[in-house]
Every structure is written in C-alpha cells, then in structure tokens.
Design brief:
Two copies of one chain form a homodimer. The first copy, chain A, has helices at 80-93, 97-113, 128-138, 162-176, 179-182, 198-211, 223-233, 237-243, 261-270, 278-283, 291-296, 316-325, 328-331, 338-345, 347-352, 389-399, 426-445; strands at residues 4-12, 20-28, 31-36, 46-49, 54-57, 59-65, 116-122, 141-145, 147-148, 184-186, 189-190, 215-219, 251-255, 273-276, 301-303, 306-307, 370-373, 405-410, 413-417, 420-421, 424-425. Chain A has 446 residues and is of the alpha/beta class. The first copy, chain A, starts with a strand and ends with a helix.
C-alpha cells in the first residue's frame, strides 16, 4: 500500500501523555509512520486536508454479538429469561448463512460509522464463516468465535455435542486465525459456564495457550445465573473459571456485575479481562458493574456494546458516556473522568485483546486504525486546542456521537467515509438486512 | 400560510390508540387538517414525498437552560458546588446580549435538529430578550423566563433586589407572553427556593393565576439542597412550595429526586408537574428520580435535557433512552416500556406546559409540530409497519438518534431540514457560538 499524509488535523495521541498534537500524520504500509507539526511533501504522495478535524485511535469493543444485529427492536421490555428463551435463542437458531452475513454486515456498518475499528465478537453456534466473511469484506479488525453450547440442557436448536463443538472450533481456528494480514483472529466463545461442560472448558485452556487465542465468555451478569453456577459448580462464577485453569490475560469476561471480594481478587491477580457493557446491563436490568472498584484493584476494564437487541445500539460514544455517568451517583461527580473512560474505550480494549502494540493509541509503528472526528457538530461545538486537551476529552466522552465521525481507517485503509463503505452503500446493507430478517422470521413461523 | 400535504409517510398518532397510520397528512394554516390513507390532489397545493419516513409529534422538553449551551465541555467531572460556584455562575454572570443570543441559537439548533419543537427554558438573570429573539428567529415553540435570584446570599454577579427582579419579570411578561402567534410565552423562573425570598415567591403566585403563566423552578435535586431548605423553611422542599401557594398544574419542577412520601402526595394531589432530567441527574451525581413510583401515584412526569454543561447534549432521544433504561435495574426489565416513555417525551410535556390541545400528538386541529424520522439508518434499521407499531416505539426510544431526523416543523413551518435552518447554516451558528465563548472567557479573565 502506498503511503499518504493526513494534514491539518489534531491528533489525540492517547499514549499516556494526554497530548493533543496539531499537524500531520503519515501512514506507510498501513502503519503510523510519522506525526509532526508539518511533514515535507514527497512527490506522488497523496495528501488529505482534515480541515481541523480531531483524529483519535479507533475504538476497541471487547464484547459484541454481530449475529444479533437483525433482532434489534424486536426483543424489548422483557424479563431476561423470556428475552433469551422466547426471542434470542429461537432467533439465533433460525439463522442461515445469508441472514447471519447480513446481520454481521449491518452491525459492522454501524460500528465503523461510529468509530469502532476492533471488536471481540461472540457468534452463534453455526455459520461462523459468514461473520468472518463479513468482517473480511468490510475491513474491520475482528476477533470472532463460534458460540459453544454443549450441555444437554441448552435449547435444542443450538446445542451440540462436546466433540462436534470442539471439532468445528478447531477447524475455524485453523481457517481464520491470522487471516487478512492478521486483521482476523479466532477467539473461542463458550457462551457462559451454564452452557458448557467442564470437559469442553478444559480443552479450551490448552487451545488458548498453544495458539495465543482469546477465550471470550459471559460471567456474573445476573443474580439467577450466579445462583445456578453455585448449584452446578459449588463455587462462585469466577472461582469456577479459575479452577478450570482459564483465568488469565487471554480470558475476556463480559459483565462481571455480581462478584464476591474473593472473585475480584482473582480477576486482579490473574490479569483476567473484564468487558463492561453499561447499556446492556441497564436494559436487561442486570445491575451495575463497580468499575471504579475493579480498576482500583488493578483489573483491566474495557468496554463493549453487547448485542443490538439488549442495547439497542453498537455505539462506543454511548457506552463511554454511560461508563462515566452511571458511576457518578455512586462514587461522586469526579468518578470516571473523561480521559480515563476514553482510555477504557481504546488502549484498555487493545490490552484485553493482546494488540496493545498495534492499536489503541497513535504511536509510531502502530497500525493505522484511525477515526476523524468533527467536533463542530452543533451538539458538541468545541474547538480543539493543544493547550486544553481536557475539553476534547470531555467532548468525545460526553457530547460526541457517530454523527461527528467523518472517516474511519483500519490498517491504514479507509473503511468508512461520509456515509459510504468501499464497494457498497449503507442503503444496500440496510435493505439486505431487512430482507433477511423477514425471511428468518418466516422460517421461525414454519 | 398555504396548505400542503406530506405523502407516503407513517404517522405515529400518539393519541392514546398506539396507532401507526400509513398515508398522507395535510397541514392548513399551520395546523394538522387531515390524516388519511390518501388525500386527493388540490391544484397548486405543494406535496412532499416522505419516502416511507415516520412522522412523530415534536418532542417537548420541560427543562432546559439555553444560556448554558456555550459552556458545554468546559465544566465536567466536578463536585456540584464547585460546578456552580467556579463555573456556571461566573459564566452566566459574564454573558452579554450577544453571547447569550449565540448560546441560545446554538442550543435551539441542536434541539430542532434532534426533533424537539417545544421547550421550557430557564434563562440567566439578565439579557432575557436575547433568548426570546433567538427563539423567535429560529422558530421553536418556547416558554422562557428570566432567572430570579433575589436573596442576599446569591453570587454578586447574579443577585438583584426583589423589586428589580419582579419589575423586569413583569416587563418581560408584558413584552413576550403570546408573541409570534402564541408560539412564545413567558414563564417565571425562580432558580430554586434557596435563591429566592418568600416575598418574591408569593408574588409569582398572583402573576401566574392572572396570566395563566407557568412557574418553572428546581426542587429536590441534591441532598445538600434538601438539608438547606429544611434549615431555611423548617419543612421539606415541596411542602415549602405548597405553603407558598405555588403547587398546582402551572408549577413545573425539575428533578424531584429526594422526596418524602408526604411530598409525593402533594405533587399528585395538586397536579404539580415534574420534569425528569436523567442525564443531568447522573452527571451531577444527584441520584435517580423514581419515576415509576411518581407515575403510579398519578404525578405528571415529563422530560428535559437540562443545560448543556450537565448533560452534555440537548437530545431527547438520549433522555428517553435513559428514562427507560435507568429504571430497569431497580424496577425490572419491563419497567418504563418504550411507549410510556415516548408519551412522557411528547404529550406529557405538552400537558406540563398546558398546551396539550395544541401539541404532543398528531390529531386534527392541533398545531403542526412534526418531526420526520428515517428509521433506515444502520443504527436502527426498522421498517415501519401498521401492524406492528411496537417496533417503531422501540426504535424511537432505544435506537434512534438525531442522526435519524430528516425534517422538523413548528406551526407547520419547516424549521430544520437536512442540516439547514431557514436563513442560516449550521456552521454559521456554531462559529458564532465559539467566537462569543472566547470573548466571554476573555471578559471573565479581566
């Protein structure tokens, strides 16, 4: 890939310095090669005028379900178990390759348009290739795994044998891990301990070590789940993960709301990663993860939007805003200040996925996963200034929205610009999704 | 004004029926004249194809501070008293006519672009004409009042004598109440009981009765305020309003978080209006208003974004979403379902302002305060259907954003369309606001 230069921007480095640098940025071979007040012209090199826009590192969402995007606004105001049993599980079970591809594309379209450049995705049980294909063509950085559900008491449309589950899991790992210039990775996704046998969980440990593979699961989301785990495992949720050998820096657990003191200590001591999903936790009435407390203990906490039907957006601006605001009534108005939250949404997410050397900040040699933000939208109206970067952090966390996103790059490639995606239009993606949703619901009624 | 017809839309009536009607809507003399499957052509009458967009009644925000819009992202992550004393009060005190006009225009631009067509605004102490002028020229329906602060212990840049406060209050009432075809009204705005003398509050009662004038104040926002009221009045906050004769359907109180059972009963029995401001209550760490409980007691609860620096948006979609989501962890996932919240954002707001015969729903004879929403944004992707209006309610409350707003009308006049306002551009409004903010901060440093 040829090199190019972005001129006349403000670059929020997010390298720990808090600095906002006015000037230019050069991308070479998909990586950040230079950031400086001015970059001399090189013949034939393309230059783009950012006209004062602010460039940030792309957001990293550490818990999403692209397979559920089609079900948005079709599963609301319901009890958690009704939500799963009457809607989400039957819906997931009715997916075919085409509907899953359309669901993933719609989700990725929203993610890229909202400045998210990396995701950790939990698929459904079947057709996982379709999610990889969508991520491959749309250009997002994605860790994806088929959902593992091998216990007998799983819903019949989704459950499978331990052997079949592990077999396909391995096949997908071999097929996709490291593809597209390492932009795609496989991440095993046991749904939660209640869905999986101990035997399966123990196998994943070896697979994770041998392949430097993320294991992605849910934990301690609802009180009912915590109770059920106690009955099944005779221990708390995180203790069970720990005993199975899975805790550690390659385990990413969504939610972690209802935790004992001993469990918090395990998370901190093993560097297990927590993905906080504030909108989803509200919508499903799950409760509130005490992120200031976890962070104080040294636990790595990043952010995710979860699935579209329990959010109902895939919008990191919204998750950042809530990750800050929700803690304030409990911990005071100075809790979770804007800069801390912005770091959770970027570099902490990169750490959770083990890609902190490649993503999460604007530093020389990192991959060019960038987002150009216009802070002159009337809902923001902040002029960036090197002297007062704190107003830019406030603007990004408390006021900005996908409406401010002008362009998104992954690996230096433009993947979203002014409402368009390379090779397709937003309308085409939305219309395909709505067609496939209709067909999926028709299959369900049969 | 000539009549015109909007064709090929879905009209969410919001008249209590829950119906979504496909077809056309005619506007005559600024009012809704007809809604039908099809409306026969009349020679010379303009027709606009909505291409399947959903038309809703404009949102009614019952608590905003347009004077604070300039301070957005300049007063974050602070304790409440620091926030007021070190930022908001000095900032308000430094306003001149030009900066206040720019602040109000910027706020109104965001409001109209986000589908809000009516507001109840609390100004600052001086230059209230500038807010009226901005509302007049931008075309929003607005109840506006100068902020009343006549106690001696108010900050010196804002306090004034009781006589001076009441004198200007009356002058503004006489100058603006009913102007612009009754689109502008005066609403007296005693800041809160801690800012005002009993004598002033008693005068407002007579003024309100004689002029059918709203009284707009804050109450029971923080525990410290509740404590201070107890010391000053020897009673709870709402009890003090009640004793002063002010409770009733023309009193709109923002927040109402920390209430005794007796106070809740007073609110219900007197039909006093509560304006719930969920984002602001989180950001200032105030707490959570128990809206399901108040509604069960029969209290009218509507919504407002409060000021930009404590939100940091003026976005009714966001307030609706939070008004639902925040209650679910406390009252279960079925609490505050989408349709109830949509009604709070529209018809309940109209009731609070006494304009329910003119606004808040799409009914024949009501003023044409309309918003055209495109639900095909990728972050929503819902096809409207007469048979399943519940998905449209979900989409509006849980997924939609100002990005979906295509056009806004007030009194049948188009006041926002595709990023533009009649007679001006969004950039002009934003740049003027940023210029005036710089000058205001320069005045403060002197």
């Amino acid at each position: 890939m040829a090199s190019y230069v972005l001129d006349n921007g403000f670059f929020l480095l997010n390298d720990g310095s808090g600095r906002l640098v006015r000037g230019s940025l050069r991308v070479e071979n998909g990586k950040i090669a230079k950031i400086a007040r001015s970059i001399p012209k090189v013949k034939g090199e393309k230059r783009t005028d950012l006209a004062g826009q602010t460039v940030i590192p792309g957001f990293v969402q550490t818990h999403v379900h692209l397979c559920q995007t089609l079900f948005r606004n079709f599963a609301d105001d319901l009890e958690l178990l009704d939500w799963l049993r009457e809607r989400i599980w039957p819906f997931e079970g009715a997916h075919n390759e085409k509907s899953l591809y359309a669901s993933a594309r719609l989700g990725i379209a929203e993610l890229l348009a909202g400045g998210t450049t990396s995701i950790l995705d939990m698929g459904t049980v079947r057709h996982t290739d379709a999610i990889f294909e969508a991520a491959k063509s749309m250009g997002i950085r994605a860790f994806i795994g088929k959902c593992l559900m091998d216990r007998d008491d799983n819903p019949p449309t989704l459950r499978e044998s331990t052997k079949a589950a592990l077999h396909e899991n391995l096949e997908l790992l071999q097929r996709w891990h490291g593809q597209a210039n390492d932009r795609l990775r496989y991440a095993s996704a046991p749904r939660f301990l209640l869905s999986c046998t101990e035997g399966l969980m123990r196998e994943l440990k070896g697979l994770s070590d041998a392949n430097e593979m993320i294991v992605h699961s849910h934990s301690s989301e609802s009180r009912a789940e915590v109770e059920a785990i106690r009955k099944l495992y005779g221990s708390e949720n995180i203790e069970a993960f720990h005993r199975l050998g899975l805790t550690g820096p390659r385990l990413v657990l969504a939610h972690c709301i209802h935790l004992s003191e001993a469990e918090k200590k395990i998370l901190a001591e093993t560097s297990t990663r927590v993905s906080h999903c504030p909108s989803s936790n509200l919508k499903l009435a799950s409760g509130l993860c005490s992120t200031p407390e976890l962070r104080k203990l040294g636990v790595s906490v990043s952010l995710g939007a979860d699935g579209a039907p329990c959010n109902n957006n895939l919008n990191m601006f919204q998750e950042m805003r809530l990750a800050s605001l929700l803690q304030k009534p409990h911990h005071g108005p100075t809790a979770m200040p804007a800069r801390d939250v912005f770091e959770m949404a970027t570099i902490e997410g990169a750490r959770a996925l083990g890609i902190e050397k490649d993503a999460g900040s604007l530093e020389i040699g990192k991959k060019a996963d960038l987002v150009a933000i216009d802070l002159l939208e009337p809902s923001v109206a902040v002029e960036a200034s090197e002297k007062e970067p704190e107003h830019v952090y406030s603007a990004l966390v408390y006021s900005a929205s996908p409406q401010c996103v002008r362009q998104t790059w992954v690996d230096g490639r433009s993947v979203f610009r002014a409402g368009s995606y390379p090779g397709t239009t937003v309308r085409e993606i939305v219309l395909e999704a709505m067609r496939e949703r209709k067909k999926l619901f028709a299959r369900l009624r049969k």
